[in-house]
Design brief:
Number of strands: 13
Distance between the termini: 27 Å
Number of helices: 10
Structural class: alpha/beta
Length: 281
């Protein structure tokens, strides 16, 4: 149910399609009863996996408990080093439920020699007071080795924990759901760094939901729309516009690896038809 609230934009009222609490935790809690629509992720071969928002809440809650069991607390920053789109979505929203601030970064092609993505990871860890990295079993050892090799240059690397997402999913404790204020930090996104060192842009709960509500209102989107994203999942456009926004609607969202489309651009058109997507970027 949409609610009208005051707005200074051209004298119009802003319609809130998300939640009156104006924070992302309340949004996911509000969608935990939605069994029809949800999130679909494709892998690099094009195979898809889908979960309803109800099932997705359970997965995010389990990860929240795993992060808390690993010692993370509200306000801590955690880099996401996850190649699978569904893992990124669960990691992002698991952080939200725990009050941990996710910093999504694309995984590196390798970690045993310098490259732009591993350099970007190290720069973020050094500059933005990040305490942990969340990754998959196959990347845990390479990332740990990378940080260990650099401990002599920067002792702070020794205090950074590399957390295995598979271990988080084995934790049986109930999650302790955090209750943030609307203006609390929700996530940090890094700029491209094309004109210098990448900057960390912190987005609040209220800012993300304001963007989602305004986009829905301006375009007349409904829960019957389907979003299709093939931008990399380290970008606010993919996680907010095509992630938070469809969740605010309770609409289906589909996420595709960028390489899957770039290798054969006509796949974008096929995916639009296959998933009956009405919103894509």
């Amino acid at each position: 149910m949409a609610n009208k609230i005051g707005s200074d934009i051209q004298g119009q009222e802003r319609t809130r399609f998300s939640v009156p609490e104006n924070q992302l935790v309340a949004l996911l809690l509000a969608r935990r009863s939605v069994a029809d629509n949800g999130i679909t992720a494709l892998d690099r071969r094009g195979a898809s996996s889908s979960v309803s928002y109800a099932a997705f809440y359970e997965q995010a809650g389990q990860l929240c408990a795993g992060l808390q069991n690993a010692g993370l607390r509200p306000g801590d920053r955690l880099v996401l080093q996850l190649a699978d789109a569904m893992d990124v979505m669960v990691g992002f929203w698991g952080c939200i439920l725990a009050g941990v601030v996710p910093v999504p970064l694309n995984t590196a092609p390798f970690y045993d020699r310098p490259n732009s993505q591993s350099d970007r990871l190290l720069s973020a860890l050094e500059r933005f007071r990040i305490s942990s990295v969340l990754t998959t079993p196959d990347l845990q050892a390479p990332i740990t080795t990378l940080l260990g090799a650099l401990t002599g240059d920067n002792p702070e690397h020794a205090s950074i924990s590399v957390i295995n997402i598979a271990d988080c999913r084995l934790v049986g404790d109930a999650p302790k759901i955090h209750a943030p204020a609307p203006d609390d930090p929700a996530a940090m996104f890094l700029t491209s760094g094309s004109t210098g060192a990448a900057k960390g842009v912190v987005q609040t709960h209220a800012a993300m939901l304001a963007m989602a509500d305004a986009t829905i209102q301006m375009n007349g989107f409904t829960e019957d729309d389907v979003t299709l994203n093939w931008m990399s999942l380290d970008h606010a456009g993919s996680l907010v516009f095509l992630g938070v926004m469809p969740m605010a609607l309770g609409a289906t969202q589909v996420h595709v690896p960028i390489d899957y489309v770039l290798k054969e651009p006509s796949r974008w058109l096929d995916l639009i038809e296959d998933w009956r997507a009405s919103i894509t970027w």
